[in-house]
Amino acid sequence: MQLSKIPRVRLASLPTPLEEMPNFCKKLGGPHVLIKRDDNTGLAFGGNKARKLEFLIADARMKGADTLITTGAVQSNHARMTVAAARRVGMRAVLVLQEIESEPGGCDGNLLLDFLMGADIRLVNPPSGKDPKARSQAMQKAMEGVASELRDSGHVPYIIPSGGSNPTGALGYANAVLELIAQANEVGVGVTHIVHASGGGGTQSGLLLGALALNTGIKVVGISVSSDRNYLSERITNIIQGSGRLLGIDLPPIGDNITVIDDYVPPGYGYLTSEVADAIRFVAETEGILLDPVYTGKAMYGMMDMIKNGYFAEDDTIVFFHTGGTPALFPYRGQLKLLLDEARKAHE
Ligand SMILES: *Cc1c(COP(=O)(O)O)cnc(C)c1O
After folding, report:
1. Closest ligand 1 atom, CA of 170?
2. What is the pLDDT of residue 129?
3. Active site includes 76?
4. Residue 163: which residues within 8 A CB-CB, separation 6 or more?
5. Dist CA 171 CA 85 (whole Å)
6. Per-residue pLDDT reduced to its tens digit, 16-57
7. CB–CB of 93/70 below 8 Å?
8. Between the CA of residue 75 and those of 91, 102, 103, 227, 241, what are the distances in Å?
9. Which of 4, 76, 198, 205 is catalytic?
10. If you take atom 4 of ligand 1, which residue's CA is the nearest one?
11. What is the structure's pLDDT at 135?
12. C-beta neighbour count of 265 within 10 angstroms
């Protein structure tokens, strides 16, 4: 894997820590679980987008861009980190944001941070409904509108797709596998599984690409937070093939290696449930580690449930990637408090 030949701007604090979760494991039982702290990458409170942005911003620079355009929900972590990255390299950022029903409103969490960093924020309302393709096409069109407006006023815009989930961004997570293997070797840990929250598929694509290209035998388990298994697997296949082309490597057939778990998606993206709130509380109480309500809390609930249901063997070693998202805890404060108070009362 010739990752070092691909242009990259250093933006993240790497390597992120690989930490044991002794109290969590003792209380839960089952396999050995470690946590990879990609919530500590830096860039305005950290998260998985930092690794992708290192490659995306290098590409934007090569193309002479002065303004980044990206999209997401109002509480998008990707949007917040894109603004931070733009500011670090002296660029401007335009955010084309979508209000979604499940998310709490107000200038709070990620939106507050976007505002503080001086992002040009455009709220749009694409057709609602369940068709993710139609929605993403509408957002793409809105971004292209902004791009042509910027070009007319003499700027050079660069569009980053939702979540930075494209072949270039995914390279950041192929690199994360290299980083993880070095850390695991150092402490003599043999990793059997990586588990993480999967949204647009960029993270899972990069992790799987890295795991396959390095012949690690590690199984990458993506717990979907929004899409069904078929839709996400198809996206991942396309992204990996694109990344493979960028690296000039021949990949083994990918389809059979993609593991997307979509059992934990309901009731849908951004809806907080009592199970997810409880998983957030459990990790906070056992390890003092904070997860987020939209991605990592859901993935943690999924992983804990899969552990209880015997999906993993007792002698497996799982690395849970903490992909960030913690600023969203704050706008969800009301729901979190309510759900956890209810659970406490039910236990009394
Ligand atoms: C964006 C995001 C993800 C999902 O990453 P993808 O590469 O889009 O699958 C997971 N966790 C957090 C906190 C995120 O912000």
Report:
1. 7
2. 60
3. yes
4. 49, 52, 72, 78, 169, 199, 200, 202
5. 17
6. 999 999 999 999 999 999 999 999 999 999 999 999 999 999
7. yes
8. 21, 11, 7, 18, 30
9. 76
10. 199
11. 83
12. 19
